[in-house]
Amino acid sequence: MLAMLLITNDDGISDGLKILLYAASKIDSTECIIPSRQRSAVSKSLIFHKPLRLSTEKIGKRNIHHLSGTPADCVLFALHKRKFLPSRPHLLLSGINLGSNISLHSIYSSGTVGACIEAATYGLPAIAFSQHLYSKDWGEKKKIKDAKEVEKQILKIVRTVLKYGMPSGCDILNVNFPEKVKGAKIIICSPSMHRYTPTVLSRKHPYGVPYYWIVGKGYFHGDKGSDVEKLREGNITITPLSIQPTDEKMLLSARKLFEI
What we know:
Elements: E1 4-8, H1 15-25, E2 29-35, E3 54-59, E4 62-67, H2 71-80, E5 91-98, H3 104-107, H4 111-121, E6 126-131, H5 147-164, E7 172-177, E8 186-188, E9 197-204, E10 210-217, H6 227-232, E11 236-241, H7 248-258
Parallel strand pairs: 1-2, 1-5, 2-4, 5-6, 6-7, 8-11
Antiparallel strand pairs: 3-4, 7-11, 9-10
């Protein structure tokens, strides 16, 4: 069966996007729509208060669409703009994010994962791809490490999902690569709660007005068996996620408390 893959990210044009596009092109047809500028940590936010603008550029033989919105806007636009896509996609691929998206603290703020959440609300299964980078690699020209091996693993994961479908009850796969991918094992794991200690830094404007930076200080080892721990050990981590935040046990408990 032919598969149509929709591709987005939260970084705009990046090394990670180019590798993901190249890998996806080996599977079947692709359509790519990305934010027109960097949109990290915007989660699933949507822009309703101003118009969105669309432009297109050609990279090689491929059209890349740029939308002046968030990653979730890109997904919503692609799925609901009449005749934008030749057919409904089978799968959304988001990434490859230059920096890991591990722990609930990062997953819920990630624009890369946010695009996947938006897709899942419309019944489109999605995979988020990210790679851990050490602080020394956080420059203007960030590059995916071990790119050929990353590409091989993406092909393996995507082909498996297209052949067998998503795991039971799963809407999104959150995939994180270590820096050294060759020889790394795939580990299925739950998310840790945090990955670092949030810190608020205080500074002063030359005129004495205070301003602040929110930064992450240090690095947790993560909960035992979690994505943080397993990625730190050099594994490829896959965390299956559901967008359904409640279960029957929770509903029953709430009914006992409030349906009096």
